[in-house]
Amino acid sequence: MSRSHLEAAYAGRRHHLSPFLVLGDPTLEISFELAKRAIALGATMLELGLAYGDPSADGPAIQKANLRALGGGATTDAALELLKRIHSAFPSVPLNLLVYGNLVHARGFARFARDAVEAGASSLLVPDVLFEEGAELRAICKEANLGHAELVGPLTSRDRLAELAAAVDAYMYLVAFQGVTGARTGGTGALSELVQRTVLAVDVPVCVGFGLSEGAHVAAAFDAGGRVAVVGSHLANAIEAGAAAGPLGRGERVLEAFERALSPLAEVAKRYP
User: Fold this and answer.
1) Is residue 13 within 8 Å of residue 42, measured between CB atoms?
2) Which residue of the set 47, 115, 150, 240 is catalytic?
3) Residue 45: domain span
4) For the chain, N or C: smaller number of CB within 10 Å?
C-alpha cells in the first residue's frame, strides 16, 4: 500500500467513511476483527492509530483506547504486524496512520516510513509535530511514497490553510470541533460552515474528524464538500462498553457494541457515493 492507493480511492468515489481504531484495542486479535467488521459495514478507508501513553490531541475515550492497547501488548512492532494483516485482508482499502511524534522519532523517520509502507499504510499524520519542524519528515514520506497529512482547526486562518495545503499530498485533516477528540452531539450548522469554508480555501481533499458521532455529522461533512469523515471517540466508547462486559464472550460483545455504534453512520454514508 502507498499514497497511490489513496489516490485511487479518491478517483473511485467521492466520499469515504473512515472509522478510527487504535491498533491493538482492546487486544490485537479483537482489533483485527473490528477492522474487518468496519469494512463489512461499509467503511471505505480506515484511520489507524499506534498506541501511545500520552496522546495529547485526544480526549478521554481515545486515551483509554491507547491504554487498553498498550495493556494488551500493542508495541509499535506488533501494531505494524497487525497493520500488515489488515492490508493483506483488504488490499484496496486505504489505511491512514495517526501516530504521535515520539513513536516516529524512536524508530527513525526513514525506517518508520519504510516500515509503514511495507506494512500497508497509505498516509501518515503526526499531530504533535509542528509544520515548521516537519520538513525532514515530509521529505522522507514523499521519498517512501507515504502520503502526508496536516491537522487544521476551526481557528486556522485562510493564509495558514493555503500554506499547509501546499505541502499536503494525502488530505487536510480538519478538526470539526475545537479541542481534543471526543464524541459531540448537534452542531451541524457550524460544522457545515466550517467544512465549506475550509474546502473553498484549499485544493486538496478535506478529511473531517474530532467529534463526529451522528449520522447528521457525516451528512453535514459530505454535503459541505468533505471527502472523508472520521469517526473515532464514538466507536472507542462502544469498544470500552463491550470490553467491560468481562472475559466471557468479550470479543463478541465488543464487536456487537461496535456494530451498533457504527451502523447508523455507515447507513448515512452509503447515500454518498
Assistant:
1) no
2) 47
3) 3-269
4) C
Give CA angle at 24 (240, 181), nearest 5°: 55
Q: What are 44-74's pLDDT values in tens digits?
A: 999 999 999 888 777 889 999 999 999 999 9
Residue 227, amino acid: R
In contact, 94 and 121? CB cutoff 8 Å: no
Confirm whether 54 is a catalytic residue. Answer: no
CB 46 within 8 A of CB 83: no
* Pairing label, strands 95-98, 46-49: parallel
Q: Identify the CATH number of the domain in which residue 72 sits.
A: 3.20.20.70
**E runs forming strands in the chain:** 16-22, 46-49, 95-98, 123-125, 147-152, 171-175, 206-209, 228-231
Residue type, 65: A
Q: Specify the pLDDT at position 58.
A: 78
Total domains in the chain come to: 1
Amino acid letter for position 134 = G
CB neighbour list of residue 121: distance below 8 Å, 6 or more residues apart = 1, 2, 83, 95, 96, 97, 146
Give pTM, 2 decimals: 0.94
Nearest to 250 by CA among 258, 262, 242: 242
Q: Are the beta carbons of 48 and 94 closer than 8 angstroms?
A: no
Please give the Cα distance from 255 to 261 (Å, whole number): 10
CA 134 and chain centroid, separation = 20
| Residues 233-255: tens digit of each pLDDT | 999 999 999 998 766 567 999 99
Q: Is 77 a catalytic residue?
A: no
